[in-house]
Amino acid sequence: MHIHDSMIDLVGNTPLVRLNRVTQGIQATVLAKVEYFNPGGSVKDRIALRMIEAAEESGALRPGGTIVEPTSGNTGVGLAMVAQQKGYKCVFVCPDKVSTDKINVLRAYGAEVVVCPTAVDPEHPDSYYNVSDRLVREIPDAWKPDQYSNPNNPLSHYHSTGPELWEQTEGRITHFVAGVGTGGTISGTGRYLKEVSDGKVRIIGADPEGSVYSGGSGRPYLVEGVGEDFWPSAYDRTVTDAIVAVSDKDSFQMTRRLAKEEGLLVGGSCGMAVVAALEVAREAGPDDVVVVLLPDSGRGYLSKIFNDEWMNDYGFLDEAGEHPRVGDVL
Ligand code: PMP
Description:
Structural class: alpha/beta
Radius of gyration: 19 Å
Oligomer: single chain
Strand order of the largest sheet: 1-2-10-7-8-9
Order of helices and strands: EEHEHEHEHEHHEHEEHHEH
Low-confidence stretches: none
Largest sheet: 6 strands, mixed
Strand content: 15-25%
Bound molecules: 4'-deoxy-4'-aminopyridoxal-5'-phosphate
């Protein structure tokens, strides 16, 4: 029988797909690593599995224990799915800018979700970092994976995403582009690709304008899951060769194009990463192979990026080629 023992066995080994339309005029091959094929729907299943297994091995997570984590959604889904299969409870702490769609998904997996204000300093007692620390102290047998400082976050990519890309491209990958949130994806995948290629593969981070990685002050932006207002230890700055800053507007318009032109219904950080990848690919030659990682699906953003009214409210829909709204005079 061709069966899998549980959903956990389906984490990783995601497909690599050529981008054909948004790449017009570009000579290099541009390939997308489509992470929504993971069973929890995002790249974060990879880190959830490795962080939990390492905590079981070290004894930090005991049978029947509770996982407490501040997460913008995707890490929560990965942790909730793996936790449920292994018999752990989950409490997640989310900032209030996260879409209700994402929060409802966490609750569907049986997790408890605490929502905190975005507009407070990280040091404030109500910040989502501090609330989660308090919950860890108060809940018996609680364990906090802390994806921002857990070495198993980048290590999961060093051991899975990196080798998969090297194998899938038969060693022909020349550039790797990924959005930077905790920095785990780019640091782990990048380190593996640098090592296996004797430093030849170029590693490029994509970052929302305003975030610290591209020299911003930490001012707000709307793309979810990427950019930071501090430097997490999961991010190894020595791995990235360059960082490309991308605006919310460019990110979301590209996200819509990926659905309409490539059949890829993906999230806003994917559009952001593709804008950066195309910038890199425009400078690359015909033998170059640029791989861009797409972290999640667009299903969690239907009421935002794929909603004309929301896009219009922020002035993101003024380019030619967008379809008219109901009531517009044609
Ligand atoms: N995009 C989305 C939607 C995410 O949830 C994350 C994770 N925060 C990222 C990109 C960035 O990945 P990483 O944390 O590995 O840098």
